[in-house]
Amino acid sequence: MQNDEIRDAVRAVIGSVAPGADLGALRPDRPLREQVDLDSMDWLNFLIGLHEKLKVDIPEADYAKLVTLGDVLDYLAPKLGK
């Protein structure tokens, strides 16, 4: 999977969890939860959505590594063959 495809998939999952989010305005260096106002349940649904859409396992021990959009993309890229 290419970086653009991963980014698009992540944005799609965010959009499904936070339908009112301005996906085009997401910054890769700011905390994702703050940008789209996700509470802890929304965040868990986002991670589950990534697992379902991309067929990638994200162990609970790795959740703390996923703070920004950039973190999420950097985490997923090697797992998805990029």
Order of helices and strands: HHHH
Radius of gyration: 11 Å
Query: Total strand count, please?
Result: 0
- The whole-number mean of residue pLDDT values reads 94
Relative strand content: under 5%
Low-confidence stretches: none
Shape: globular
Distance between the termini: 6 Å
Q: DSSP helix count?
A: 4
Which structural category fits the helices and strands? Answer: mainly alpha
The helix content is: 55-70%
Largest sheet: none
Q: Can you give me a brief rundown of this structure?
A:
This protein is mainly alpha-helical and 82 residues long. It has 4 helices and no strands.
Characterise this structure.
By secondary structure, the chain is mainly α. Helix content is 56%, strand content 0%. The protein has 4 helices and no strands. The chain has helices at 3-17, 32-36, 40-54, 69-79. The chain is globular. The relative contact order is 0.22.
Q: Which keywords apply here?
A:
single chain; 82 residues; mainly alpha; 4 helices; globular
List the helices and strands and how they pair.
Elements: H1 3-17, H2 32-36, H3 40-54, H4 69-79
